[in-house]
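Q: Could you fold this chain for me?
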Amino acid sequence: WEVEQELFDESAFERLTLAGPKYGFANNSSGVFARFQGEAMDIVELDEPDVTPASQRETQRVSGQDGKFDEEHYLADFVSDEEVVSLVKFRPYYNEQYCKYLEYLKSVRDSAVNDRSSTVVMAECQTAAATAMAPPPAAASGPGPGPDPAFTAQEQYVKFSQEELDQLKALPNKEYLLDGPTTRCAYLGLVDLMMSYAYNHRTTLAENTVESGWTVAKLSNTLSWFESFKSLREVIIASVRNMLSYPLYRHWKLVKAVIKDTVAIFALGRRQIVKCLLEMHSLFLQDDNRYLLNDLYVTDYCVWVQRASQKKIKAIGERLSEMKIAKKDVGWQLAELEEAACCVQEEQDGATAAAAA
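A: Sure. Below is the predicted structure, expressed as structure tokens.
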């Protein structure tokens, strides 16, 4: 009520919609923020989303992260890391499911190897004997190979609650026809969303707080900067920079734990990703302004990912598990800061010991 109100300029909105920068899922939105003033504009970090070209979003994001990174805050968490250690030790439920899932896949592989080794000699003899007497081969018929056990196991280990089923029923029934580059951006944006979700889930010990909506939105470059990524490595580095710039806990060990959490989420497939997205959707729905992020991104992601490629999701998880991110990749001389802090700590310990003696 304290914000001065102005009449909405419909003609200006039309110009923004037709010619302005695009954002939202699959870049299907524009001119949205022309309708809002005041606090509604604070849900994103990007300056003037309706006029800032997409080509400038990365530059703004990097500049914003550089401005928010605080050496003293980082070093304080590095030196006094008791709380961070407890957060790193926490095991999210999807990590437990991931371990069970890996054990199941191992048992399936071991069983297949044992079955083959016990029958291979007999099968080869039967094949050799039958080859001479067999008629010409007919065209192949009948069902092909069975379903991938990795995907069927996901249904066994990831279940929806009744509340989540109700949320799914309330989603719109839509189909998406995305071209190759847009589809790639959608998958990379999904990684970005899961990274911010995993940070909040771990740092709240799976108990969302009044700050959780802020945390998830702020740490996602998709939601806060409307950025579209070109590579998985680019996504991870940008997300790590956020985790070390904005939230309460800023520690490299926590960063590594969140990356492992994201690997587990993708390994468990579409169902687990949908569960995470539904939780994000609920968080934003409870916020006076962040519901806009549902309209722009999260609702569409909830629908689209249900039909996303299981193979691509699995491949992303595998690639992410293999990726090595070093402190030097972030660009803030973290290793040098930590080394200097260790030297100061050693000097202080030495002085304390000498005084005690």
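A (continued): Residues 93-133 form the longest helix (41 residues).
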